[in-house]
Amino acid sequence: MTKLEVINPATEEVISTLDYTPEVEINAQIDRAQEAFQSWKVIDAHERAATLYKWAELIDNNIDELAELITLEGGKPYAEAKGEVTYANSYVKWYAEEAKRVYGRTIPANTSDKKILVDKFPIGVVGAITPWNFPAAMITRKIAPAVAAGCTIICKPAVQTPLTTIKLIELAHDAGFPEDVISYVIASGRDAGELFTSHEAIRKITFTGSTPVGKKLIQQASESVKNATMELGGLAPFIIHSDADIDAAVEETIASKFRNAGQTCICANRIYVHQSIVDEYTKKLTAKVHELKVGNGMDEGVKVGPLINSDAVAKVLDQVTDASTKGASISRSLDDMTALGGNFLRPVVIANATQDMKVMNEETFGPLAPVMAYDDIDEVIRIANDTPFGLAAYFFTNDYRTGLKFYNELEYGVIGWNDGGPSAAHAPFGGVKESGYGREGATEGIEPYLETKYLSIKQ
Ligand code: SIN
Questions:
Q1: How many CB atoms lie within 10 A of CB 117?
Q2: What is residue 178's DSSP assignment?
Q3: Which of 99, 215, 410, 459 is in Cβ range 3.0-4.6 Å of 49 for a Cys bridge?
């Protein structure tokens, strides 16, 4: 059987070699998770919460090692990787609390001899498939609510970044979670997807990744009517209106666009700036973007690490070439952008972007900031909504009426108003349209792991 080589995207060296989990073992693991579910679901919520808290403590104690793994296998700058571990752990801590708040209710019956009780039960065994861009946070925001609810879970991390998941799950076992309550498999997305969706014991699929893969999983999961949560692609519009604080908007653009070198589903993909301020904004943004230090994420002061692989680099360069051919001004030459070689790209601002460019229509997943001018607020809202995606959107204005108009009319699940970093464990993350369904984080994030049952009692 072939082995999985984990590659450091900064050096392109193999940093670890892992065995793929054989199909027969994945099926056996699902069976064991089903057996473990029988005993885990009856553990009381306070004990589940205490085990989650213990896991959180171990994650805090191992933050340096976890951050190093994220940087080595994913390329994220080390300081940012540490931020991801803290972010990941905030889900563990949040769901340690939510475990204790899974409430039922009583409903007044229509006859005096009846009583109706409503209760929540864990859905069963969960199959989770996670991406490489947040190898810690996307794992904890699925595992923590699942086990808090009383489910058992099998995770399939991205083949690019399995080491962070393995370490997190080892820590979960050290904290007291039985091995078959939280486990992982090493497999390709396609193999795990097929096995998870076809095994009758799996009652829920949770996936973060691309829209095409999500659609395939939804199709497969429908065969046995499995519940699914899908956190899929984005194409975030980032709108800066005439009355916005330009300096603040530039800072928030940098925070949103260049987090993980632009490889996030919610980062600014297309920036629309009101005609009256577009020149000032673009000048200020370009100056800041060119200050960002690019390099190996383990090096001091690096703000932009490598992209995940050469395909990602090729996609970004294709968008730059397309924009340039269609008349945009690129803030650096292609030679300057690619001067560091390998998977590194120096970030650029694309001025005079127009709506027909690939960069305005395809998820970039790279360090490009395309800026297009607009005149009319209704027109910019129309363009922002004119996409199958609906994950995150941003707008900048200091006028409350304008802000409420944007908020009400933008068809997105996550919206930042003067805020380029809206993600938080206590807020419900997720998209509309082809960006998926279901929410992760907040009170909403435990619901997908619960079933509702009611009991009608006649006296
Ligand atoms: C993502 O890119 O899918 C996740 C981003 C976040 O949680 O902030």
A1: 13
A2: -
A3: 99
CA quadruple 50, 55, 58, 64: dihedral sign: negative
Q: Which residues pair with 119 in a beta bridge?
A: 453
Nearest Cα neighbor of 423 from 302, 267, 272 is 267
Helices (H), 208-298: 211-222, 246-257, 278-291
How far apart CA 70 and CA 318 sit, in angstroms, is 27
CA of 271 to the centre of ligand 1 (A): 19
Ligand 1 geometric centre to CA of 298 (Å)? 22
Contact 307, 345 (CB under 8 A): yes
User: Are 388 and 382 contacting, i.e. CB atoms less than 8 angstroms apart?
Assistant: no
CA of 421 to the centre of ligand 1 (A): 10
Could you identify the atom of ligand 1 that is nearest to the CA of residue 131? 3
Rounded to an integer, what distance in angstroms lies between the CA atom of residue 94 and that of residue 335? Answer: 46
265 close to ligand 1 (CB < 6 Angstrom): yes
Distances (CA, A) of 407 to 68, 96, 247, 397, 413: 38, 32, 22, 11, 10
pLDDT tens for the 459 residues of the chain, in order: 589 999 999 999 999 999 999 999 999 999 999 999 999 999 999 999 999 999 999 999 999 999 999 999 999 999 999 999 999 999 999 999 999 999 999 999 999 999 999 999 999 999 999 999 999 999 999 999 999 999 999 999 999 999 999 999 999 999 999 999 999 999 999 999 999 999 999 999 999 999 999 999 999 999 999 999 999 999 999 999 999 999 999 999 999 999 999 999 999 999 999 999 999 999 999 999 999 999 999 999 999 999 999 999 999 999 999 999 999 999 999 999 999 999 999 999 999 999 999 999 999 999 999 999 999 999 999 999 999 999 999 999 999 999 999 999 999 999 999 999 999 999 999 999 999 999 999 999 999 999 999 999 999
Domains of the chain with CATH codes: 4-232+433-458 (3.40.605.10), 237-417 (3.40.309.10)
Q: Whose CA is nearest to atom 6 of ligand 1?
A: 423
Is the separation of the CB atoms in 233 and 211 below 8 Å? yes
CB of 423 shorter than 6 A to ligand 1? yes
How many other CB atoms sit within 10 Å of the CB of residue 283? 13
* Residue identifier of the C-alpha nearest atom 7 of ligand 1: 423
Q: Helix or strand or coil: residue 81? A: helix
List C-alpha distances in Å: 208 to 281, 368, 400, 421, 436.
33, 23, 34, 19, 9
In the sheet that holds 450-458, the strands lie side by side as 105-107, 114-122, 450-458
364 pocket-lining for ligand 1 (C-beta < 6 Å)? no
